[in-house]
Structure formats: C-alpha cells, structure tokens
Amino acid sequence: MAIAGKWYGWFCFKPRSKAAEVLSRYGLAPGAASAQRLRIFLSALRARLVVQAVHVEITGASTEQIETVLDGDLLEAANHHAAMLDLLITIHSSRALQGSGAPVLKALVARGALPSLLDGLRKSEKRATAINELRMRLKQAGLFHTGWLTKFEARLGAGDKSSPELASLAENLATLETALRINALIGQLPSLLQDAVRSLLDQCAPAEEGVAALRKGVLAGDISDRLQNQQKLRTLDPKRLRASFDRYRELDQGKQSLVRDAVQHRWITRQKERLLVGTGFRLNSAGADLRRRLTLRGERALRLRQVVAIGESIEGGDPLFDLRPVWLASPETVAQIFPRRPLFDTVIFDEASQCRLEEALPVLTRAKRVVVAGDPKQLPPTRFFESALTVSEDDDVETDQELFEVHQGEIEDLLGAALSIDIQQCYLDVHYRSYNADLIHFSNQQFYSSRLQPIPGHPSHRTRFAPITLYRADGVYEERTNPVEATQICRIVRDLLKRAEPPSIGIACFNVTQRDLIVEKLNELAQEDREFSDRLADARVRRGPGSFEGLFVKNLENVQGDERDHIIISTTYGPDANNRFYRRFGPLGQAGGGRRLNVLVTRAREEVHLVTSIPGSIYRNVPPVPPGQSPGGGWLLFAYLRFAEQLADAYERLHHHLAEVTPKTQPEVHVRPSQAPSPFAQALAQRLSREHQVGSEVHWGNDGFCVDVALHHPRDADDVTIGVLCDGARFTQAEDPVEWDLFRTSVLESQGWVLHRLWTPHFFRDPRGCTQNILGEAAQQLNRSEEKDAIRVEKRAR
After folding, report:
1. Cα separation of 383 and 412, whole Å?
2. What pLDDT, in 10s, does the model give residues 473-505?
3. Residues 150-159: contacts with CB under 8 Å, at least 24 apart
4. What does 646-680 look like in DSSP terms, one character per residue?
5. Which residues are registered as beta bridge partners of 453?
6. Model confidence pLDDT, tens digit, residues 697-744
7. CA dist., res. 698 & res. 700, Å (int)
8. How far is CA 469 from the centre of its chain?
9. What is the dihedral of CA 609, 613, 619, 625, to 10 degrees?
C-alpha cells in the first residue's frame, strides 16, 4: 500500500495483487485512495486495541465489556489514565513509592474517584492562591484572635469548605463598630462577668447560646447567694414546713369550733345577765316580762309586731334581741314587724338581684350596716303583671341629687342599685356546685367572661359521656305545652330512680302549663307502676346533708336558689302542628331573659338532661352576635343547645382517641396555658422527661386550682400518679398565700389527688434528692393503685 501512489508502482505487480486482495476483504476497489483510507482505519483499530489492553489491565474489566464502550469514552478514560500516570511518575519518584503507580491508579478507578481527583488537582492552584489571599486579608484586618486564626487556617488546609463564622460576620457587617469596641464594652461589665464573656468569645459561641449561658450562670449565682445570705432560705426544711402546714390546718379547723363556742357563750352569758336573777336559777323581772309577752294566749295574745313594739321602750334595749340575735325574714315581714330605726347591727340581703328596690328601702332603715349579696347575671325581679313606671322628662335635672334619683329610679333591683354607687365590693370567683367543670363552662364563658374557677376533678374521674345529654324529643308545641317532652322526662326520671343509689332530681321547664303537665304525667306513670310510685315518693321527700333535696318540678321563674345532682330541662318550645317554628320564647325573650337561662343551666351538680323539640337546623345555624351587642335569651338558648351537641362530640372523640393511644416510647410534656406560668415547673417537667422518661402535664387544671406538674401514669393515658405543687408565681398573687395554699390543697385532695410539695430552696440545694423523692412517691402511688385494682377485680370474681 505504501508504493501504490509511486511512479514505479506498475512494476510491482505482485505487491499490487496482494493489496487488491486485502482491499477486497473490506469491500474497497484497488486504488491509491482506497489504500489510504484502509491504512487510516487499520491504524486507528490498532490504537484502540492498544488502549483497550491498557484499560483492561488497569480497571480489570473484561474484553467483552470494553468492546461495548464508545471511542470517545474510551479516549477520555485513556487521557485520565495518562494524566494520572504522569502525576504519579512526577510526584512519587521516591524509592518508597516506586512501582506503586499502577496499584494506586487501579484503586482510584475502582472507586470512581479519578475524574473528581483530576478536576480538583486542576483547580488546586487557584484554590491555594485564594486561601493564601484570605489568610493574608484576615491577618491584615487585625480583628481576629491569633488562636482562632491558627485553627481556622488548619481547617482550610484540611479542606473544610464551611465557614459559618465568616458568613455570620458578613451578615452582621453593619454592627462591626460594636465588635471593634468589644474589649472596651467588656471592661464596663461587672468583674464577675468579664472572664465569662471573654471565654465565650474565645470559643466563638453563638449569641443566643452565649446569652443563655450567661443568664443561667447569673441566676445560679444569685440563687446561691440568696440561699447562703438569707437565713430563712438557708434553714428551710421541707419536713418542718409540712408539719407546720398540717398543724396550721388542724388549728384552723379547731378555730372554727372555738369561734362558734365563743359566740354562743357570749350570747348565753348576756341572756343570763339580763333575764336571770343574781343566783342564776330563776327569771328576774325583765325575764318574766319577756316570757309573759311571748306566752300570752287567748284574746290577750300579742302579735309579733306588738311584742317588738312593747320592748322598744325598755331601757338598754329589748332583751328579746339578746335571746334571738339573728332573725330570718322577708323584706315585707321586716317592714311590717320592726320599728323604723336601726335595731340590728347588720342586715344581709341574699339573692339581692330578685329583691325589688322599693321593697328593700324600708329594710335599710332597720340596720347600721348593710350587706348585699347576689349575682347580677341571675334572675331579675318578676314584673309580669306590673305596668312600666312612667318617668316625666319635662323637668330638667339641675343637681347631682336629682341626677342620682333619676338614675336609681330606672334600676329594678337592690343589687343593681348597690352596684351603681361607690361601695366596698368583693367577688366569689370559685364555683362550688358543679362537680364537672364542663357543666359551668357555657355560663362562665357567656356571662362571667371566664372569671369563675370551677373545682376540677381528678383525671381518673373523667366520665365516659358528657355531663350534658341532649335528647331529641321532636314534639309539637301547642297550647303552651309539649306532651312528647313531658313523656320523655318521665322516662328519664324512671331510669334515674332505678339506680342502686338514685341521685337527687330537679325538673325545670319554661312555663307553668308545661310544669303542670309534667307533674300530671309523673302521677299517671306512678299509678301504672307501683315500684316507680314508691321510688318517686321517696325522691319527693328526700333529704340531703343539712338540706331538703326532694324531687321538684318548677318553671323558669322559681328555680333560682335550688340545686340537685341531676337537673332535667324541658325547653318546651317546638314546631306547631303544621311544622312551623316560631321564635317566641316568653320571658326568655324579654329583657334579662339571658339571666333567666343562666339560672336554669347552672343548677346541676353532676349532670344535665336537656330535652328539646327545637329543630337542629334552627339552633345550629344561628348567626353570631354583632360586635358591641349583647346576646338575647333566644340566641343564648340556641347557643346552649349547640354547645351540648359539641360537648358530646368532644367526649366521643376523646374516648376514641384514648382507646387508640398506644404507650409512647418517648415521654411527652404538655404545657397548658396559664395566666401565671411557672418557669420552674416547666423546667422540672423537662428534667423528669429528659433524665427519667416520665411525661407530665404542666399547669393542670385552672388558675384557681392548679397542679403545677401532674405526672403521667405509665400505662393509663387517662390517669396520673401524683401532682407536684411548687412555690411559684401564684404565691405572690394571693393576698394570704398560706390561706390560699391550704384551701387549694384541701380542695385538690378532696378530688383524689396525691400531692407532693416541692420547695425551690430545697431543690436548688439538692436537685437529685428532690427528684428521687418525686419519683419514689409516684412509684408508691402507682403500687397502691394497682393493689386497689387487684382487690376490686378479686371482689368482682367472688
């Protein structure tokens, strides 16, 4: 092929025939161009075979695998191999590394690191230049500590690309002036803080972590100083404090009986001095006269008003009031019997919101001091059959006295009149009646701005069903009655009285006609069922501890002041026979109707049974009250029905959630909202969770009755073991912290809580010991509860 293009080529006949034979194998015609083309092809083929052989030797791949590689990829790999071999030959020329080039190259290829290594080596020169320039600039700035620069350069030399410190410096470049003056600023700090701040700066601690560390250190130092310098804190002994609290409680209980005995002794002594002779065995003249006034019979018998009038002229006062210092009477009786002068030291008006102002005014003249007790959110005086008072506005008000008289003339009850003048006031914020806080939740939210503090029950006492049960009677309201609701109420009463320990029952409805119908149907059911008749008779004469608790049936206007375990409410209203519903609610729709509803829904201690025929589409879709307006009685009734439905749904969801809860591998700490949060209680809960795997509820209950840390039961998600009370933020809010704490403790213990008292001075001195005491008491309570459960199961088995 080499002579094919020469001038003497035609003399070389034999080589030409061999060349033609070779060209024919590749499908080429004899000629110089074909020969040149084939020569190039064969040269390239020979080069690929050589490169393939080298690649197989280096990578260890099979010939079949290499034959499928494209020429371009094979060429790129060959270039990498050549560059790496040149590098190894140039750098590793020492005797220790001689002969290791091929193995090193094989290892790099096997790991797929060869391309990235070569790319990094190509850029290494630029990177080294940039690093050197950065080092020079940092040193020239004069802002950085020598030790920090050394560590930073070492990190850069090791290939660390991250530089969070420099990124932070770039972001905060605007505050660089403060950084430049840092040494001067540190010098202005207290001496105890200077070393700590410099240490944090040397460690390049982030600002948030540094401030947190300083705060922790300062607080720890301050706590330590107080514990050492204040004798009361230094000598605080938890056991002695507990004994003091127990002794205080014992003395307080004894004080109550002693005060009662002292008051009784005072009045008995006064009676003896005025009514008995010196020997103390028979009546003197004053005593004999008083007995004569009280025991006259027949035509000469005196009325009580006459008895009081005769004694008015006795020197030193009528001994009748020494014999009977406390009188219980209605305002009308007081005005009729007692003379118009201050006979009594104090007059107390109870349920003053129902006392008309004109009835109270005559009573005010009979006392030196007046106490007005009532709830402005409860039932106002009933004036159904009275015409409104017409006030003439022809005369202009000219003096403050006239303005006051006009204002007071518009007030309908004594409580409203008392609240409109400047008098000493106090509020009862604790709600005692309802055993379940959900019973009072609606009224607390709608009427008292969530100010009332109900007594929370123990978590283990949580009921399966909501304490308010809504019954859909779907009856017809006609002629002011709803027979279907009355029948449903009778069924509820019968079911309640069948219980082994029947509760006390009260029935309330919205008018007198429905009340009479319910009484009639109860009597009819009693005639049909002898057992129910006996139980109903017992329920009607039932007496509780110190009070009458018989079953009653009352309308809305007469239920104030009553309370029972279970209250059954008939809303009475519903569609007429033509299925038309009219929003006519009688007294409930009048002014003050919401106060009537508030009385009705707050009578129950344990449960409310709400029977209604009002269509669900009516009360579920009631529009919200416009801002600045007060809701009326009808709107509040609809809202209460909707609240009852939502409460039942919430209890059902909670039940399903607790049934599906599986024991958590990691303890949880739930911090509930509180108006007086305790950072110490939160930190304690986190410590128990982090170090001892014990979850808890922080600020359990409400702000009035709060358990600072309630420890979760390890197996029962619906229970706790013990509650921890801390001397935290709430102590400073109480006027008398000792009285408040004793009251809170006694109420919580009455609900079934086992409480552990933790005093912070003791904890700061011995945190580990205090923590172990908490865990030990929780374990003991857990064992006690398991023993009780075992005994209960054994009794059931028997």
Report:
1. 10
2. 999 999 899 999 999 999 999 999 999 999 999
3. 156/131, 157/131
4. HHHHHHHHHHHHHHH----SS--EEE---SS--HH
5. 430
6. 999 988 888 899 999 988 877 789 999 999 877 777 778 888 888 888
7. 6
8. 24
9. -80
